[in-house]
Amino acid sequence: MWLRFTPTTSSGNMWATAESFRKPSVGLLLTVGLVVSCAAHSAAPRSPSSAANPDAQARKPWSVLLITVDNMRPDHMSVYGYEKDTTPHLERFAAEAAVFEGAFSTSAWTAPGMVSIFTGYYPPVHAQSGRFSFYDSEMTSALRVLAQRGYEILGQAIWGPSHEDFGFERGLGELEDFVESRLSNDEPYFAWAHVPDVHLPYTPSARNAKRFGATSRASEGIEAVGNHRIILRRPEEAQLDFEHAGKVAFGKEDVPEVIALYDGEVADVDERLGRILDRMRETGLLDRTIVIISADHGEELFEHGWVGHASTGYDAKLYDELIRIPLIIRVPDRSLIGRSSALVQGVDIMPTLFDILDINDADMEPTMQGRSLLPLIMDGTSKIRDFVFAQTTLKGWSTPKEEIGIRLVAARSATHKLIWVPTESGARIEGFDLREDPGETKNVYPQRVSEFRYLERALEAWTRDNRRAAAELVLGASGRRLRSIARAALGTGGLVDAVNEWLAIQTMAETWGLEPDAFYADEPYAARWHDAQRLADEMIAKAMDCRTKNGTLNATRSSQARDVDAWICAGPKGSSTARDKMTP
Ligand SMILES: [Zn+2]
How many whole angstroms from 195 Cα to the centroid of ligand 1? Predict the structure, then answer.
C-alpha cells in the first residue's frame, strides 16, 4: 500500500505513523483557494541599491530579469568548478555577481520548483504538485506586490493551459526579442524567461557536441536522448498519451556520450546567454536590470541508473544531481559580488529580491518561507539555514491525479541527507553521509538510525511550518479567501460560485494533505474554517433544495453552470449518471 508522507511528533517514530494514502475525493479542482500574501522577511533591509546610490529614490526602480535554465546542473558548469570549459560567458558574468554554491530546488521537476521561486513557499504550501493542482492566481503574491509597485510582469508560458494561473500578465516571447523591446522602454519590469535548451532531447550544436567529446557513435540509447523529451524507465507505466522513447536499454558505453551531449547543450546555452548579456551590457540595459540566473531543478546523468528527471523518466528521485541548481544574482551597481557555499533554496529568491529593492511588505501575511541571501554576501554571514527540503511526485508533470498525494520528501544538511521514498509495499527510508558518500550511493540509515534523528526532527519542524503557512494563506488575518467563500455562500456570487468555493475548501484539505481535524484542531483558524464550510454547505442546500454530499463532487474548471446544477440535484438522490458525465 502506498504511504503518504505525514511526519508526526506524537509517536516518537515519524516514519512508522505515515497514514495510508487516500485518493482525493475531489477530482480536478476548480480553484485551489489561497489568500494573496507575502510578507516582510526577517532580515533587515540592506539594499545595495540604496546603500550605493543615495539618489536611487529619484530614479526608476531596477527591473528584474529572472532566467531559469531547465535542468541545468551547476556541477556541469565551469563557473561552478566543472573541469570542462562549458560556461566561460557565465564565468565572466559571475565575476560581477553573487554566486551561491549551495543552492537547491524545492523539487525535482519544473512546476513546483518554479512556483517556489515565484512565491517563496515550499511545495506543500503552494500545492503545485502536479498538472492537476494549479494554484489560485491569488497565490502569486510576490509578483503581485511587484505589480502594485508599477512593475510589468512578464513570464514564459511553458506549462500548457496552466501558465495563465501563475500571475504573469503576458508572455515575453523570445528572450532576444524581449531584450531588444526594452532598450527604448525604461518602465520597470519583472520578466521570467525559461530556457528549455538543456532539456531532453539533447541536441547540442555539432561544434559543441564535438568539443565536449561526443563521437557520433550510434546506439539505441544515443538515438533516444537525441530524439525524445520523455524517456520512461518503465514504459509499461505510461498512462498518458505523450510521445516517449519506449523501452530503451542504455549501455555503459552510452554514458560518456550522453554526458558529452548534455555538456554541449550547457555550452550552447552559455553562448546564447553570453550574447544576450553582452547586448544588455552594451546598450545599458544591464545598468538598470537585476539579473538572476538559476534553474528549476537538476538532471540525472546515470548516477542512479537513468537519465532525465521526474517528468521525463516517471522515475522520481531527490538525489543531489536532481535538486542542486545554479544561482547567480547580479545587481546593476555591482555592489553584490562574492561567493557563498551556504545552503540556500529557490524560496529565497523573492525575499532576496525584495531586500535588494527595499520592498517592505510587513503589512502582508504570512511571511514567505524563504530568506534574504544578502547577509551571506554583504555581511559575511556563514549560513541562513541549517537544512534544505525537497518534495516531488513520482512522475512530475505526468503524475496522474490519483497519485498526486504520493510524494518523495527529502531533508538535507551540509553533511547528511534523508529521503523518504514511498513504494508500492510501504515506504523506504534512505540516509546518506555526504562527507564520505557525496554521490549518495550507500544507504546507511538502517545501521545508523540515531545519526539521522536530527534530520527527522528537521522534517517534523518543516511540516509544522508548512501547515502554519498554509493555514495563514487560507484563513489568515487578511482573510480574503474566507471572505470570498462567505460571499459566494451568501449568494452574491451565484450558486456556481458557491459550489466552486465549497469544492475549493474541500480540495484544499486534500491537495495540501491537510486534513481539517489534524490541521486546524488546535489552531485559531479552526472555527473560521468550519464556519466557512457550514455556511457554504447550508447555502447550497437551501438554494437547490437538496443536500450536498461531502467530498464526492467531481468537476472541472471549465464545467458549465448547467452541469453543476444538474449534478447538485441529481447526485444526492442516488443517480450517478449526472456525476459521471462531469468526470473528465
Ligand atoms: Zn524543468
Answer: 9
